[in-house]
Amino acid sequence: MPEPYDPQQAIAPSGAGGGMDLAMSEAETLEKTPGGPLGTGPAGKPRSLWSDAWHQLRRNPVFLVSSLLILFLVLISIWPQLIASGDPNECHLADRQLGSSPGHPFGFDNQGCDVYTRVVYGARASITVGVCATIGAALLGSLLGGLAGFFGGWWDALLSRIADIFFGIPVILGGLVLLQVVVSTTVWPVVGFIVLLGWPQVSRIARGSVITAKQNDYVQAARALGASNGRMLLRHVAPNAVAPVIVVATIALGTYIALEATLSFLGVGLRPPTVSWGIDIANAAQSIRNAPHMLLWPAGALSITVLAFIMLGDAVRDALDPKLR
């Protein structure tokens, strides 16, 4: 006798039920998984650019090492007393150019100052200049470049010509000319000079990124719906154009620290009694044969700091640019 008719078998042929159960099982497993495949978050939902970038950065050992090193440098620049209890400007000529000794692991400089204490306190001026100059150049360049890329026309042409003028100024020569007439022991003249010559690079990056972002469909849809220029720029264009600016600014921070040390070495950057790695390198260069330790430690600290910020910038660039994955 023929078997009775089963509606479930008619709906799901042989083997389909097992496949459907397997698919449902995989979906349930994905929902229970904290993170899905590349570009997806919990429950398989697509991640945003920033969450996806953070997901990549947490798995990048270069980012972790550079971040820990930069965090340490920031901490000692804010509270140098954590690892150095002496006064960087306390000197004793009797200890002039002496090498390492108990309590003074880096030895003494030409004036009898403790090199270790000066290296620790020198991080404050260098990182302050780098951070402040980067923030100033990024904000000014992003504002001018973003407006030029969004509105175009005569404003874009004018900004491009002004940027070309600044690009034609040699950085070192400009520093020798401009900072020579400024008599100050603070970091702000150096910060202002770096911002003055650093914003054109950021403005070009911001301009190109805004031009690319404003051509996307969601911006055109917002324009068709009657959104104002300010709303489109702040809500739709800027959030999707800021990633290249962040990458350039992160890498430039290390470059600005090296530039400050170069200007201080030449005598037109930071000036005593400010403690700076560039000043100590300039003082140690005269006695490199007799006391190489005076040059080794501040130069090593400067190199490690610049390398840490460049490594951080490379990691951020790799995370924010999907083409490099």
From TrEMBL:
GO biological process, one term: transmembrane transport
Gene source species: Streptomyces boluensis
Any Pfam family hit: OppC_N
Family the entry assigns: Belongs to the binding-protein-dependent transport system permease family.
Location of this chain's protein in the cell: Cell membrane
Transmembrane feature ranges: 61-79, 127-151, 171-199, 241-259, 295-316
Main localization (coarse): membrane
GO-annotated cellular components: plasma membrane
Keywords recorded for this protein, A-Z: Cell membrane, Membrane, Transmembrane, Transmembrane helix, Transport
Membrane topology qualifier: Multi-pass membrane protein
Record-annotated ABC transmembrane type-1 domain positions: 123-313
Protein's UniProt name: ABC transporter permease subunit
